[in-house]
Amino acid sequence: GENVEQHPSTLSVQEGDSAVIKCTYSDSASNYFPWYKQELGKGPQLIIDIRSNVGEKKDQRIAVTLNKTAKHFSLHITETQPEDSAVYFCAASTVANFGNEKLTFGTGTRLTIIP
Amino acid sequence: GAVVSQHPSRVICKSGTSVKIECRSLDFQATTMFWYRQFPKQSLMLMATSNEGSKATYEQGVEKDKFLINHASLTLSTLTVTSAHPEDSSFYICSARDLGTGSNPGELFFGEGSRLTVL
């Protein structure tokens, strides 16, 4: 099955600086890569996703890049703010069976923005 | 946006009792819902896929007789932890996909989670 590794496990960044979180996956058939933000005691919220036919996607301060050859994808947060502090999870899935695909999550990164 | 609601958000029970957690899609129909378990400071682990009108599909290592899943309608799936023990204490999270229209799969929405503590 799919195996997703995520680094670093913890990351502290000065407010205003950029944060980068990296993930690698094992299943070359995976073609959907979402990123989730989870605040304490809450469920994950989708912040951005990318499909395998695209190499990069940006949404305001958040961007994701995908390298299918190397099987890795990264989350980039620019101009970080204290409210960006949370645990971030990457995930991968194979969208072969519409609506039934299973997400495999990375191990999570605890991001702390230092004011 | 679409919302998935879980109830209860927190529950404490005695060892040996059963606990039911509900997952509702509030403004869309979901033929498929997913149940995850998350231990402190760990990732989400998929327990089972809940299919409306049919049996759930359990992941390897998840006891189907212990974690009963019922998906009787297009907006409700329930997870019942039977004969709960302290090791079942965890954060249980459901998700549901809004199939929407068009050729691309819709977004997967997560509930707020249910924290189970078994004494």
Task: Assign the structural class of chain B, choosing from mainly alpha, mainly beta, alpha/beta, alpha+beta, or little secondary structure.
Answer: mainly beta
Oligomeric description of these chains? heterodimer
Number of strands of chain A: 11
* Residue share in β-strands of chain B: over 45%
Average pLDDT taken over every residue of chain B: 89
Largest sheet of chain B: 7 strands, mixed
Low-pLDDT sequence parts of chain B: 101-105
Work out the helicity level of chain B.
Answer: under 10%
Beta-strand share of residues of chain A? over 45%
Number of helical elements of chain A: 0
Q: Could you spell the SSE succession of chain B in H and E letters? A: EEEEEEEEEEE
- The best one-word shape of chain A is globular
The string of secondary-structure elements of chain A, in order, is EEEEEEEEEEE
Rg on CA atoms of chain A, Å: 14 Å
- What structural category do the secondary elements of chain A indicate? mainly beta
Helix content of chain A: under 10%
Low-confidence stretches of chain A: none
Largest sheet of chain A: 6 strands, mixed
Q: Shape of chain B, please?
A: globular
Radius of gyration of chain B: 14 Å
Number of strands of chain B: 11
What would the keywords be for this entry?
heterodimer, A: 115 residues, mainly beta, 6-stranded mixed β-sheet, 5-stranded antiparallel β-sheet, 0% helix, globular, B: 119 residues, 7-stranded mixed β-sheet, 4-stranded antiparallel β-sheet
